[in-house]
């Protein structure tokens, strides 16, 4: 449905398509906005009822670009477009990893391409479903990227106005937390913490069970929490999200367990596997953490051990080989195999510390796979995973590991209110 005259690749296309048996539709117009053109409603109907829609290049074909609005109309209709290859790899650049069917500008292989796919109805339907899902995901990610770009612009404007004030308040709160370093242990048993906690207003939790911010970056952070701990986890989410916006990292946040047959902490492995292939490094961060110093970067950590596949810190009191609250994984088949073994552990997962806890199970897997520790680097805690009792001016991430619910809610909430 369109013009053919003066467009050699379209003439080639039609001559090749003539030899393909089966029902088809052809309507040629002489010019753009021709009086003879098909009504929009009919055009949509024909696209929707078609299995394949050849999408030859548009006006950009004269300069080597193969794009045409017909491709997007076909995808919106849920049909299968067939596009032209080009020397500039236009589609590969705009749609990395796309599943679109491509043929040469001569369209010589079009008959074989269509006949081969028509042989197996199940495979054809499976491909069509894959295509529809890819297009839907692409649009969703594009929408998020646009929102992120607009948000970044708005955020930069706001930062320019309030940068000095916010920076001073951040330093003030860091100093306050450091002054308390010798008191954190004493806070654990005070009943007044429960009283104060109950007086605080409920935080508004996003309705989405999952969100992505800043997609398609080299480094990604993953975190997860459930409604049971959302009173303080929402502050961790906000802290990490703002940090990712500042440093240009992707952030994946889950707000429900991924395995409803197990305690939420056992969902770490699956959450990491969901996204590890899309990034050079993926980082797990527990939901009882705060980015204490947002100027620090994970690139600076990675540079200290660039050949290692797993980066972690020591556990408090060295009770375990490492602390699993913050873990860095290089995207590699080796790490994916380890994480899969962690996910597929068959023991008791009914509580936080069942089977010794997910941390201990991961440590056991690491010891068996790499007894000498050649593939991992275990840093001191204050490198990027600091207990409040060890906080200082060099702290990167503060981790309220094993602290009472009420303490986390009060202090993480206070930290979050930088504008107050």
In brief:
With 420 residues, the protein is an alpha/beta fold. Helix content is 42%, strand content 14%.
> What percentage of the residues does DSSP assign to strands (E)?
5-15%
Gyration radius, rounded: 28 Å
CATH topology of the largest domain: Spore Coat Polysaccharide Biosynthesis Protein SpsA, Chain A
CATH architecture of the largest domain: Alpha-Beta Complex
Q: How far apart, in Å, are the first and last alpha carbons?
A: 61 Å
What is the β-strand count?
Answer: 14
Mean pLDDT: 88
Major sheet strand order: 6-8-7-9-12-11-13
Q: Count of helical segments? A: 13
Supply the helix-strand structural class.
alpha/beta
The CATH class label of the largest domain is Alpha Beta
Q: What's the CATH H-level homologous superfamily of the largest domain? A: Spore Coat Polysaccharide Biosynthesis Protein SpsA, Chain A
The best one-word shape is: elongated
Order of helices and strands: EHEHEHEHEHHHEEHEHEEHEEHHEEH
What is the helix content?
Answer: 40-55%
**Main beta sheet: strand number and arrangement?**
7 strands, mixed
Low-confidence stretches: none
Describe it.
Helices cover 42% and strands 14% of the residues. The mean pLDDT is 88. It has two domains: 2-119, no CATH class; 137-416, Spore Coat Polysaccharide Biosynthesis Protein SpsA, Chain A (Alpha-Beta Complex). The strands form four sheets. It has a seven-stranded mixed sheet with strand order 6-8-7-9-12-11-13, with helices on both faces. Strands 3-4-5 form a three-stranded parallel sheet. A two-stranded parallel ribbon has the order 1-2. By secondary structure, it is α/β, with parallel strands linked by helices. Helix 7 (191-199) crosses helix 13, helix 8 (230-247) runs parallel beside helix 13 and helix 11 crosses helix 12 (358-369).
